[in-house]
Amino acid sequence: MDDFNFLILPNGIKVVHKEINSTRLVHAGIVLDVGSRDEDPDELGLAHFWEHMAFKGTKKRKAYHILSRLDSVGGELNAYTTKEKVCFYASVLDTYVDKAVDIISDITFNSVFPEKQIEKERGVILEEMSMYYDSPEDAIQDDFDEIVFSGHPLGNNILGTKQSVLNFTKDDFLKFISKNMDTSRMVFSITGNISWKKVLKLCDKYLSIHEPRVRSSNREEFKNYIPRHVEIKRPTTQAHCAIGCEAYNLHDEKRLPFFTLTNILGGPAMSSRLNMGIREKYGYVYAIDASYQSFTDTGLFSIFFATEQKQLKRCINLVNKELEKLKTTKLGSLQLHKAKGQIMGQLAMAEENNVSLMLLMAKSLLDLGRIESLKEIFSRIDSISAEDLLEVSNEILQSDQLSLLTFLPQNH
């Protein structure tokens, strides 16, 4: 972590900083190790609802003052929820960094969840649900989580259910936060035109003042993946398809080789095997992607595409053909060299985006307990062999272990 400054505050909050003088902007965020997988069955969607409600009033500010505080100086305030994280972050000109840290600290620790605002926000979240449901590309991803992680919190939709969202009260938010917030599992990350000395002052003023909090709930580990094949009729014009299975967790040494393999198969490059073999060769799809997501105790490999229903079976066969190739045919040295170069380029571009870098530093600290430099990651990518890729493809891409979800047009 030579390029970063790091500190643990007395209350357990980890602070990580990288100074970047080539910009006038500062990006700061608080990332909490709490997500939708930490919800009990009667709390589905509560983490995401909390993320919305954090902007709706604190002990010292009303919703308007929260939203306008950074808007008025050209800054941005934002948040997101995932299966394992909730994050509040801001981007401002360096002149206004004090305001930014003040506001993200305030909404993280001092939200009051006014009943009137809860009622209003229910409608907003129900609209968000409808929007996702109306978009089969988004809906199939959520439904596929449910197929792979069936019966486990990781399979639950981050937005919750209509019923759960309609039932939440102020007490539910306070109980969930009290049970899940842990200052030792929280990172304040900051990048941009700001010195370490200034960061320490801001931490003293806005973060050290909070009492230590300890989480009282434990995450349920995911076990016993069972492949499933599910077909759903939906009002769509195309057939939508998801294929995938459980994969490596984020602590597994095989994570990087498998990430490389997924990138070769269906990453963002137009030359990915799925894109070349199904879109370019046959014109059966507009887009086809493979992705790999790792969690603390498991992972998810998935392929998504949409096509005319009459071509669906042919597309699934072509996907399986590409998966078989990865398991049986070793990559040549030139192919492997190109694949590594592609990933390194993508990672370097992600790190050049200072907001992404700020969030990446926080997540890396929470998940791995350290931050790897690009140099370290590149060195690990360089050491991946064609044999490593064959090994992970044969471990994960077994045809009898693949789950399949299809949305079929209702009128066919």
From TrEMBL:
It holds the Pfam family Peptidase_M16. Signal peptide: none annotated. InterPro entries: Metalloenz_LuxS/M16, MPP/UQCRC_Complex, Pept_M16_N, Peptidase_M16_C. Residues 15-162 form the Peptidase M16 N-terminal domain. Residues 167-341 form the Peptidase M16 C-terminal domain. Belongs to the peptidase M16 family. This is Pitrilysin family protein. It comes from Mangrovivirga halotolerans.
